[in-house]
Amino acid sequence: MSESLWLIAANVLSFSGMAWLALAMEVHWEQVRRGPAAEARRPCRLLRGLGVAALLFSLLACLQADRPSMAVLVWMMLLAGGAVAVAMTLARRPGLLVLLWPFGPAMLRK
Questions:
Q1: Which of 62, 48, 50 is nearest to 1 (CA)?
Q2: For 19-57, what is each residue's pLDDT tens digit?
Q3: Number of domains comprising the chain
Q4: Which helix (H) or strand (E) holds 1?
């Protein structure tokens, strides 16, 4: 795989990881679900686990793309960029994060 594809994968994983970590919080879960969190039990552990795993795989993708000293710097910037992108998505269109629900949007809306 080329360096560009590894960096694209790292970027997608970083955004997904930050989104899953945000969805593990009750406030953001309610924003995305568009209703009280009491209606459906939010799977905090699953979302946190997915978020952490995605961020670690993002680091591994960065390490595949470049030498370690540069990869860590790029990864840190991707973490910051992913966090800002998720924050902006939650501020403007929180419903878009439904697409990152691992079991499909229909199950989340129940």
A1: 62
A2: 999 988 888 888 887 765 545 566 888 889 999 999 999
A3: 1
A4: none
pTM: 0.85
**How far apart are alpha carbons 72 and 18 in whole angstroms?**
17
Tell me, yes or no, whether 67 lies in a domain. yes
Structure tokens at 105: 């949007």
Residue 57 lies in a domain: yes
Instruction: Evaluate whether 54 touches 14 at the Cβ level (below 8 Å).
Output: yes
Structural domain boundaries, residue 12: 3-101
Tokens read off for 54: 């995605």
Taking residue 29's Cβ as centre, other Cβ atoms within 10 Å add up to: 22
49, 33 contact by CB (below 8 A)? no
Query: What angle (nearest 5°) sits at the alpha carbon of residue 100, between those of residues 90 and 49?
Result: 100
Paired tokens of 5? 């594809």
Cα–Cα dist 110/28, whole Å: 17
Q: Are 32 and 23 in contact (CB under 8 A)?
A: yes
* C-alpha distance across the termini of the chain, in Å: 39
